[in-house]
Amino acid sequence: MARIKIDQLSTVYPNGVRAVDSLDLEIADGEFFALLGPSGCGKTTLLRTIAGLEQASGGSVSIGDKDVTSFEPGRRNVAMVFQDYALFPHMTVSENIAYPLKVRRQPKTRQREVAERTAGSLSLGGLLERRPGQLSGGQQQRVALARAVAIDADVLLLDEPLSNLDARLRLEARTFLKRLQKDIGITTVFVTHDQAEALALADRIAVMEAGRIRQLGSPRDVFRRPSDTFVANFIGSTPMNLLDGTIENGSLSVAGATLPSPVDLPDDTKVTVGIRPEYLSLEPAGQGITGTVSTIENLGVSSLVTLECPDGSLLGLTVREQHEPAIGSTVTAVPEQGRLLLYGKEDGTVLR
Amino acid sequence: MTSLVLRRIGYTVFFAVILAFFAIPMLWLASAPFDSKPGLGLRWPDWTFGNVTATLEHPYALTSLVNSLLLCGLAMIVTTVLAACAAYALSRVRIPGRDVLLYLLLLLSSVVTGTAAMVPIFVMMYQLGLINSQYGTALVIAGGMLPAAIFILKDFVDAVPRSYEESARVFGASPGQILLHVVLPIARPGIATIVVWSFVQAWGNFLLPFLLLRDINSQPAAVLMRTLYDEGGSANLTVIPVFSLLYSIPVVVLYLFVSKRYGFRFHGGIKS
């Protein structure tokens, strides 16, 4: 068990791509940490640099109190689960789980014992003599996890561990993974492009873009208060409303409505107004944005209602089932107290 | 109706002739060794074991078969081990012009140990003092087979997913362990192919051992075959059939053994 400290880390590929760009990050001991971002943002490269599979071009990586930047992967005492699980097809489940011990030249009986114990705790008990090809996707994923936790590694690294599972299995595996991590208490870093997965699993999330961290915080922080429009766009299963607004006479003019400004700004400042569909509600009266209902999308227990505002912009909001307004009717959407965010028009960062 | 019958008869006769073309030499190989008066034609044998006894008593027959086994076993081992290491390295290490290098090697290998290069090879081996050395000859044969073996094996190694090796690396496996534990077992059908292929190539090689092994005591079976004449200068038909039979057994046995034990097939479960 150990913390990870990343200091000014850069990873540059031979073709000149700066996949990780002077990045600073500290991950606490026992933390479940998510690296989240769109594909090509450098999250996997960062993970692989922590593992030692990519050579850092600058900066350092420390695990515990040791600077491991120049260490071979095998000397860093990390365990890793790959996206394709990388289970050896010619070995049985038991041999796969015990492989790290085989490399460490532990006796056969100990290998067997550890494989049985680990498999038991991950409910793989009856499958020890099977080969990976004879297992389902969920079982393969658990074997890969078992192999990773069979040794007492300091750090567990997961590269998109759930992306090869189908949707229903993914939810199950997610719960399983979170419980396993809490039981073992191992410092875990996992990479994902699925914001829902990151929000559900992680203690803290780093949202990455172009080799840099755009926002670092708890799932709640990142969801409620995205630090810029990139993060705002990326997080949330329904996209955040981002509308053009202007400060006029100390209040906010947006989509043909006037709302109290959450931040004191000089008049005529152009801003981007961010508000999550979940934080808007339909009220008969109140200070809100008025519009005509144009479409209603059913999301199960709630519906996503899209309003067309007088100035032509579209505003999404969610309402509980059976509270949907009629299409074509004119309604007013009132933002929840303190949930309206203003972003600078130029740099897209949140204004406090 | 009749045309259909005629056509079927035509087909049957046609294939029977082709079948006979390949089957008759096999039948000769099965019957002639045990015939009291073996000839070059095929006939029902007048059973005897006299030929077998005569062959076993021949001063060089058995020695040459043992020589063959030694020579080809050695060439096979050298080829397989070196090709496996080279194929792994060439598959994983990026060097500029790698593919050109591979194709050039493949192209030149047939020239380098082919008839064209016989004189320089003979001179080189003479100066190295390796004439009449089975080890030296095995090395030359292996050298000739290596480019093709590397070429074939590299394809098999290329098919092993990178993440398998990286996974092993993270667990602390050394490059040697990765090769032994992960890459070779997965590329096993390729290795099996190279083992059989290189052995058979070396087994049938006449020219190189003929030139480099001048001493009849160290000559392999493929070379000795040509000395099996009687005093009159005609083929020694007492020894040749039995010798041919013995000569063909090891290749068949090797093929069956490798096919059964290691299998020219893939393991299930590799998702691409």
Automatic annotation (TrEMBL), chain A:
It holds the Pfam family ABC_tran. Residues 4-235 form the ABC transporter domain. One of its GO terms (molecular function) is ATP binding. SMART domains: AAA. PROSITE patterns: ABC_TRANSPORTER_1, ABC_TRANSPORTER_2. The keyword Secreted does not apply. SUPFAM superfamilies: MOP-like, P-loop containing nucleoside triphosphate hydrolases. InterPro entries: AAA+_ATPase, ABC_transporter-like_ATP-bd, ABC_transporter-like_CS, ABC_transpr_FbpC, ABC_transpr_MalK/UgpC-like, Mo/tungstate-bd_C_term_dom, NA-bd_OB-fold, P-loop_NTPase. CDD domains: ABC_Carb_Solutes_like (cd03259). Transmembrane segments: none annotated. This is Sn-glycerol-3-phosphate import ATP-binding protein UgpC. It comes from Kibdelosporangium persicum.
TrEMBL record, chain B:
The chain crosses the membrane at residues 12-30, 68-90, 102-123, 135-157, 178-200, 235-258. It holds the Pfam family BPD_transp_1. Its main location: membrane. It comes from the Bacteria. Keywords: Cell membrane, Membrane, Transmembrane, Transmembrane helix, Transport. It is a multi-pass membrane protein. It is found in: Cell membrane. InterPro entries: BP-dep_ABC_trans_perm, MetI-like, MetI-like_sf. Residues 65-258 form the ABC transmembrane type-1 domain. Belongs to the binding-protein-dependent transport system permease family. This is Binding-protein-dependent transport systems inner membrane component. It comes from Kibdelosporangium persicum.
